[in-house]
Amino acid sequence: MFAIISDIHSNIEALTAVLEDIDKRGIKTIHCLGDIVGYGPNPKECLDLVMAKTEVCIMGNHDHATLYEPTNFNTGAERAALWTRFELETEPDKELLDKRMHFLINLPMRHHMELKLDGSHAHLEFVHASPRKPIHEYVFPDDAFSSSPKLGLIFNRVHHICFIGHTHLPGVFLDDPDFYTADELDSVYPIIEDERAIINVGSVGQPRDGDTRASYAYVEGNEVHFVRVKYDMEKTIEKIYSIDGLDNFEADRLREGK
């Protein structure tokens, strides 16, 4: 049994609420699909929690942008990346600064696991964006209907099950091609040995599917469970408003879940 979180985006209130929910379920192992930072007001605190609580963490595009350059980012995302970098680099505790930067720099782009789930064999892959381009490529629900050749090429890189984040839209892609939201699945997807799937676990810190609650998933037996968790959204919003280096839009969108 393990949990999968993604796209925390420096939202410590959402991350704390999700970690509490995971703990209440008795889940001891957590994998993170990246974008620990970006957009939100608490990058250092989120990094510290992810370092302490996760077994595996993947490089996200905002993690990458904070370290290097926010290429092809919109203005708000770019401002957030540059502000986040400043926050991390001006940490007065050099040991803590080095620990955080070393963690970010060494995040892998992929992680693989071979498991027996209720007697069946499962090959699991974890990336931030897509199995084809693990840091930057977006896989949108509409791709299943309007860009099926793109989805076909992406599925060529899928051995069995691939967990992703990046779009902040929880649901399951099948290679028919098709896409099912978490709601359409009643929040449960059964892993089948001969069925390939790309599973988006949604976003902890900035949901975009119209539901303002934090999103994550966990695997128990051969089932993937999608979970939503309420958190103190207004507290996060007020923090963003108070920081000149962050765009107010990143706060406003939390209220809309978009």
UniProtKB/TrEMBL annotation:
InterPro entries per record: Ap4A_hydrolase (IPR050126), Calcineurin-like_PHP_lpxH (IPR024654), Metallo-depent_PP-like (IPR029052), Pesterase_MJ0912 (IPR011152)
GO cellular component, one term: cytoplasm
Record-annotated Calcineurin-like phosphoesterase domain positions: 2-220
Pfam short name (any one): Metallophos_2
CDD domains: MPP_superfamily
GO-annotated molecular function: phosphatase activity
Family per record: Belongs to the metallophosphoesterase superfamily. YfcE family.
Protein name: Phosphodiesterase
Species this chain originates from: Limihaloglobus sulfuriphilus
